[in-house]
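Input.
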Amino acid sequence: MNTDKKIIRVRDVMKTDFHMIDGKATVTDAIRVMKQHRTSMLFVKKFHEDDEYGVLNAGIIAKLVLAKDRAADRVNVYEINEKPLISVSPGMDIRYCSRLFARYGLMRAPVMEDGKIVGVVSPIQLVLDGLCELSGIC
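Output.
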């Protein structure tokens, strides 16, 4: 076993600036929040302790609201959000995180600790921050 190998963990590259929305909000509300925070993705809060977090992004809105000519102010976030989410832990090695992303075609994942979202990670952070550091090219 090679113990000299440098390990970069998800916590080292994750972003902690993510935004949440209530599932009862309308898609119009979600678009306002996205524009306000200049993001294309929101995590959807749990309705209760035994619920799961969801995600809403511009692609989901385009596919399930815009393309179907539905009124954004008449569609609630809970109707179209995707859940449950595949999440990663902050202590996960970024190499395993990258494999998980590749296996499931993920573009981002919540970073979960003690049942709460503490960050978000995407291939951008894995490559530009993690691989850059691992390979010593940066």
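The chain has a mean pLDDT of 93.
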